[in-house]
Amino acid sequence: WMALLGLLVYIPVVALSRYTSLGALVTAAVLPVAAFFAYPRDVTPNRFHFVALMAVLVVWRHRENIRRLLAGTERKLGQKAG
């Protein structure tokens, strides 16, 4: 269910913004919170920390994309390299 939720977040963000990196970042931010609320009894501290760590790693891995998004220089989906 979490993978489906991830797609339900990722696809509209990318469709509206045309930034794949933004879709990944928003999805990474939403999933730990969604997991906590969707499965409150199943989300042990270890599981929550694992999902949160994965989200942090996605953000860390996209740090250059974040800089380009903030600077307005990130390429959009389908845009040719300058």
* Termini separation: 39 Å
Largest beta-sheet characterization:
none
Number of strand segments? 0
What spatial form do the alpha-carbon principal axes imply? elongated
User: Helix amount, in percent?
Assistant: over 70%
Structural class: mainly alpha
Order of helices and strands: HHHH
Contiguous low-pLDDT stretches (5 residues minimum) are none
Q: Beta-strand level of the residues, as a percent range?
A: under 5%
State mean pLDDT (0 to 100 scale). 88
- Computed over alpha carbons, the radius of gyration is 14 Å
The count of helical stretches stands at: 4
Structural features, described:
The structure is a single chain. The protein is mostly helical and 82 residues long. 74% of the residues lie in helices and 0% in strands. It contains four helices and no strands. It has helices spanning 2-17, 20-38, 45-61, 63-71. The longest helix is centred in the middle third of the chain and has 19 residues, at 20-38. The N and C termini lie far apart (39 Å).
What's a concise summary of this model?
The chain is an all-alpha fold and 82 residues long. 74% of the residues lie in helices and 0% in strands.
Supply the key terms:
82 residues, mainly alpha, 4 helices
Give me the secondary-structure topology.
Layout: H1 2-17, H2 20-38, H3 45-61, H4 63-71
Helix pairs in contact: 1-2, 2-3
